[in-house]
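Hi X.,

You mentioned you wanted examples for the new student's onboarding notes, showing what a folding record looks like when two proteins sit in one file. Here is a clean example. The first protein comes first, with its sequence line followed by its structure tokens.
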Amino acid sequence: MPKILAALSAFFRWLRTSTGQLDWAARWRILLSRVFVWFLGGRLLTPPRLLEDSS
């Protein structure tokens, strides 16, 4: 369990320091991609078509 918590802490530290220039939707995509990494086969989620058109 300590290894999992250390990895989670490291990921959140990286997310906070490395994605400061991204908007909240991009940060959520990265976070959810990490949560569902097994289901996504390691790829990042893509934004919904509706959000792409409104930016």
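Then the second protein repeats the pattern, sequence line and then tokens:
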Amino acid sequence: MWHEFKTRRFFKNREKQKIITAIEQAEKLTSGEIRVHVESKVGKDVIGRAQEVFENLGMTNTALHDGVLIYLAIKDRKFAIIGDSGIDQAVPSGFWDDTKEKMQALFKKGKFADGVCLGIELTGKHLAQYFPYQSGDVNELSNEISMGK
């Protein structure tokens, strides 16, 4: 219970709103869907856990398979950015490396909300190259931050 409370309090309300606004702005550039998930601990395999959360959030159900998850395990100090199969097939290998490096630089300074917002902004710009916004595009996934234990 304590971990869940601590996780829910990781971002202040204004930071949560800043992140949600960043998602809304990024999704104006792309048909891609962006989610952020925060939990306390991941264990060893951050990518495996991010994939599990991705599926649990229903992110594999988008029409173009163009969902992206920014996953953070705050106590373990680990994070991952993963995309759905449509993105993986369209983008070059190492596509997320630059975004992760820039986010990590802000995380090291304790600027977690700023790092997440930068990651969202860069994700939107990168995805726009492969999945541009289409007229009539529907927001298929919630822009709210999901929380785990």
